[in-house]
Amino acid sequence: MTRADFQRLIDDKTKPIGSLGRFESLAVQAAAILGDMTPSNASASLTIFAADHGIAAQRVSAFPQEVTGQMVANFLAGGAAANVIAAQFDIPMTVVDCGIAHPPRRRDALVDLSLGGGTADSSTGPAMSPETARKAIAQGRQFASGIESKIVCFGEMGIANTSAAALLAHKLSGISVAELVGRGTGLDDTALSHKQEVLEHAAARTGALAPIEALAEVGGFEIGTMAGAMVGAGTSNKLVVVDGFIATAAAALARAIEPDCERTFVYAHRSAEHGHRTLLDWLEAEPLLDLDMRLGEGTGALLAVPIIHAALSLFGMASFSQAGVSGAPPIS
């Protein structure tokens, strides 16, 4: 069935056309991508991609780089926000090491796609080589091919990754650094001003860049791998649930690499991170939720899953003819 077919089905349900607003368009998008209208068949999963960033040495984060590995250990132990929300919805969670500088001692259950012990400092030189950037995209695509769920949520963990995301978004969109830089893990005004200065310097090293060149110059390993996974999942007709600012930067990269994959994207929420609203506007994306969240980890994406399932349930409504309701609008 085509998207138009699913739209006709929704329009013939016992309600005024369009009366459920974006809930209806979400139902049509999900059904058209998945080829299935049954919520119970739309299984979901969460993958968290983790890596470190050399630009953390410039004190652009309120937390030290060691926290990346410590939080990954927390994910593996089941103690993070993403764990408890995923458990609430019975969504399995996978953690991927894309390049953690200080990985946890216990690595069983941690998927190893490490590209090194964190990127280089993009304020002084390229974050990675072009070959490594291409490898990040390729391994993300390959990883996505092994995901069995129909709905894929992607999250991230990496100290200083709001800096990498802001720089990548700047290079892809042309939006100024000032409009994209934010407080990340909770910087005060003085630290935020310093972060902007560092990012302005990093951005000024290079001019206009092609998408893979931009990834190579500003990183990071987890953002590139996530972008590749979004491309891989999107081109295999999985519904890709995009989380917050960092995930949206990855989505912008995925779209630049493979424009058609964006039709499968559901933007979960508008985060409190300063640049997220600006980036969403540039992408002409309207997220489902606005809860003032800025944690990452895929937490916002997880909250979108029950909304997607509920949207698909609309196809279980009776049609006007089935319900014997008169006054149905004409369906062409």
- Strand percentage lies at 5-15%
The largest beta-sheet arranges its strands as: 3-2-1-4-5-6
Q: Low-confidence stretches at least 5 residues in length (pLDDT < 50)?
A: none
Helix percent reads 40-55%
The pLDDT mean sits at 96
N/C terminus separation: 16 Å
**What would CATH call the homologous superfamily of the largest domain?**
Nicotinate-nucleotide-dimethylbenzimidazole phosphoribosyltransferase (CobT), large domain
List keywords for this structure.
332 residues, alpha/beta, Rossmann fold, 2 domains, 6-stranded parallel β-sheet, 10% strand, Nict_dMeBzImd_PRibTrfase_bact
Structure notes:
This is Nicotinate-nucleotide--dimethylbenzimidazole phosphoribosyltransferase. Pathway: Nucleoside biosynthesis; alpha-ribazole biosynthesis; alpha-ribazole from 5,6-dimethylbenzimidazole: step 1/2. It catalyses: 5,6-dimethylbenzimidazole + nicotinate beta-D-ribonucleotide = alpha-ribazole 5'-phosphate + nicotinate + H(+). By secondary structure, the chain is an alpha/beta fold. Helix content is 47%, strand content 10%. It has a six-stranded parallel sheet with strand order 3-2-1-4-5-6, sandwiched between helices. The protein is globular.
What's the structural blueprint in terms of helices and strands?
Elements lengths: L2 H9 L10 H13 L9 E8 L14 H12 L3 H8 L4 E7 L10 E3 L17 H16 L5 E7 L3 H13 L3 H4 L8 H16 L6 H8 L2 H15 L3 E4 L2 H13 L7 E3 L6 H10 L15 H14 L7 H4 L9
Parallel strand pairs: 1-2, 1-4, 2-3, 4-5, 5-6
